Amino acid sequence: MGKLKTCRCCGLVIPTILIKDRLCVLCNYQLNWLQEKHQESLENFSSWWKDREKYIIIDTETTGLNEDDEIIEISILSLTGETLLDTLVKPKKEIPQFITKLTGITNEMVSKAPVFSDVLDDINRILKGKILLTFNAKFDIRMIDQSLKNYGLSFNYDIDSVKCVMLEYAQYFGEYRKIEQDFKRKSLKKAIETEGINLKQNHRSLGDCELVLELIKSIATKNLVLQEVANG
Ligand SMILES: [Zn+2]
């Protein structure tokens, strides 16, 4: 048996011939895979920004996280920074106090707001032909579905035209969890902080849309600068 070396990542002791850059074959493979995934997400962020007229950002505030919760505010922002929709929505149930504390939205504020079925036409008109970006796609889509169900309506959307910014950012950041076999997700607040964006989250739907826009723009433009440097 020849010389042995320790992998600096997993601690495996194996013949030197199977170690490269002080990493074992398996860890090297994983590192390459992570770099590919990072690159893939970086390219997605960049293409969203490059083709920004094709995309819109949507965000909702809700009465909570459960299966009977509803939307109390919805905003749609274009990637060019234009507010396409920004409205409070009157839910069927009461807004609990912890939500009012978090968002500042009170039952009184929504008492004269339209109900969700009234804003559906606007939403559908704005979404037409656009690809939808939301920070937590699964959550926002579920909340739209739940809010509509109250009025016997349903949301017609093509799942391929919805992109989850949170999952993309998790892959971009690249903290892979072996047990969960998934990238660690970050909150919008954490993502903004990590990217050094100097904005505060106000937990209102338009404010959150603006944060998502800044996140996309920040990652994409950093990448474009790097590309220019690389191309001389
Ligand atoms: Zn290793």
Description of the molecule:
Strand 3 (19-20) and strand 4 form a beta hairpin. The longest helix is centred in the first third of the chain and has 26 residues, at 25-50. With 232 residues, the protein is α+β, with helices and mostly antiparallel strands. The chain has one domain: Nucleotidyltransferase, domain 5 (2-Layer Sandwich). It has a 5-stranded mixed beta sheet, with helices on both faces. Strands 1-2 form a two-stranded antiparallel sheet. It has helices spanning 25-50, 97-103, 107-110, 116-127, 137-149, 165-173, 188-194, 205-230; strands at residues 4-6, 13-15, 19-20, 23-24, 55-62, 71-78, 83-88, 131-134, 162-164, 176-177, 182-183. The N and C termini lie far apart (48 Å). It binds zinc ion. The site of zinc ion has 8 residues, from strand 4 and helix 1.
From the structure above, extract its key features.
232 residues, alpha+beta, Nucleotidyltransferase, domain 5, binds zinc ion
**Hetero groups:** zinc ion
CATH topology category name: Nucleotidyltransferase, domain 5
General form: elongated
Strand order of the largest sheet: 7-6-5-8-9
The main β sheet shows up as: 5 strands, mixed
Write the layout of secondary structure elements.
Layout (H helix, E strand, L loop, with lengths): L3 E3 L6 E3 L3 E2 L2 E2 H26 L4 E8 L8 E8 L4 E6 L8 H7 L3 H4 L5 H12 L3 E4 L2 H13 L12 E3 H9 L2 E2 L4 E2 L4 H7 L10 H26 L2
Parallel strand pairs: 5-8, 8-9
Antiparallel strand pairs: 1-2, 3-4, 5-6, 6-7, 10-11
Helix pairs in contact: 1-6, 1-8
The structure holds zinc ion.
